[in-house]
Amino acid sequence: xxxxxxxxxxxxxxxxxxxxxxxxxxxxxxxxxxxxxxxxxxxxxxxxxxxxxxxxxxxxxxxxxxxxxxxxxxxxxxxxxxxxxxxxxxxxxxxxxxxxxxxxxxxxxxxxxxxxxxxxxxxxxxxxxxxxxxxxxxxxxxxxxxxxxxxxxxxxxxxxxxxxxxxxxxxxxxxxxxxxxxxxxxxxxxxxxxxxxxxxxxxxxxxxxxxxxxxxxxxxxxxxxxxxxxxxxxxxxxxxxxxxxxxxxxxxxxxxxxxxxxxxxxxxxxxxxxxxxxxxxxxxxxxxxxxxxxxxxxxxxx
Length: 302
What we know:
Elements: H1 3-18, H2 20-31, H3 33-51, H4 62-84, H5 89-99, H6 102-113, H7 122-137, H8 144-153, H9 155-178, H10 185-202, H11 212-238, H12 241-248, H13 251-263, H14 269-288, H15 292-301
């Protein structure tokens, strides 16, 4: 496969992932937060089994399969339920922005966990990303009281989203150390689905009666998630990693734009300002890890 084609696959993965927040919310509205998420990951696991296949367990590190598998499941549960438990569509998009702190956190954790070298730009980058989240959560009047009052309206959703961002950042660093370039995502999806169905049966919930379009949205969400992971794996292994890494930082804006359209929600200018700050902060964090030779190469390609 040509590098340009693989890179295009990676960009398509970003586009698919950008639709997930809105689709997960729609599925949760129809099936319930837990049941909807369980259905998405079950279908996703089946699709990945067909497209990617099962990992070779004998050649994979037990640490990678067990630790990373559990962390993947916990993250995906946090993400899906933080969206499903949001009180309204606008809060859904706000909650999703907390999840997008993970790129910045990944870089910070990499410094301590994987001896990643970084310049002092990591400090203003991190502060800018955090300020962007604070700007979004503060509403019309920026103050700590406004942020607190907003978080107090739904601490479960906001808490799950932030916990998910931390867990995914840790997962990325642990995966880099122990995966040995193996891909266990199909198994991880199955673990996530099993955990969610266990939660479903423990809660004694029933599967609601819904129309045909609800099942179409369920299929779309599962396909977007599963195909996104499959395409991304091709993109990062055979395509232009620098281009894909840069493009991935714009996912929050793409995701929010699609959610606004799909859910029929409206976002004020302050939200888009905050989203822009999160992206800029994350990009600065990423740039702080670039070595002089890599920076020269980036300029040369541009």
